[in-house]
Amino acid sequence: GSFELWVDLVDTMQVSTVPLYDMKKVEPLEVEIRIVLWTLKHVPMEYNDTIDIMAKVHIECSTFLGDAPVQETDVHYGSTDGHAVFNWRVVFSRIKLPTSSCLIGVSLYHYSALGSPVNVWQLKLDMRKWLERFAKNKDPVLIDKQIVRKPPPDESENPAEEGEEAEADAVEMLLSVHVISQIEASQRKVGRGRDPPNENPTLSVPEDGRQWGDYFAGTALNLSGMLPSLGLWKKFIPLFLIVLFSLGMLVLLRWLGLL
């Protein structure tokens, strides 16, 4: 542990004339971390020809006082090479400084509309040095479009078995990180994901991985180039499939005389 103290050394003849030091409590400094996940490369395919990629970003911070400690991106459908585009903003508000630890975890998943997502990769970023820089200078910290790579395991420690393929390329994330005071953040608000206010920077919905053909890629219903863009309707596709399945079952049960 540790503690801080203040000591005044005053001549005994001047004690009555020297005023006491004003020990007002200093209000803690609060900051906001904004992260933009732009693109991913070399996401593990897990023996599939295609992968639907979704990311979850969470904060592990001893002085985090905000809401939404876990935030999810949308889904990049039908990636055939482990590449994904997101243009997605994550916002963690009300982080009190100083803090003893602050980690940002990024987990990548193979998304499934009919089952639980399968984790295929994860990484933790230590944000403490950036928070300490902000606390020291009181100036915003901006890391713009920096590539973050998770090194593959040391092959000397985990050699591949005979006939086994070598470790795939390390996953690459293209990130932007912005650390600002909570006061400034309240004056220059931004939305999570691509919600308004969508600025600093403005994030557009990617075309890659959001088409009908991407959604059905890797299935017997690969309709690439035959259907219009998914747009926001992609969120309702699982519901449409469930409704169609339910109607089909009702027709079948009625035909069998069970209804």
From TrEMBL:
For the region Disordered, give the residue spans: 145-165, 186-207
Acidic residues bias locations: 154-165
Spell out the subcellular localization from the entry: Membrane
Which cellular component terms (GO) are annotated to the entry? membrane
Q: Which GO terms describe its biological process?
A: plasma membrane organization
Q: Which InterPro entries does the protein's record reference?
A: Ferlin
Keyword annotations for this protein, in alphabetical order, are: Membrane, Repeat, Transmembrane, Transmembrane helix
Please list every transmembrane segment annotated in the UniProt record, as residue ranges: 236-256
- What is the protein's major site of localization? membrane
The name this protein carries in UniProt is: C2 domain-containing protein
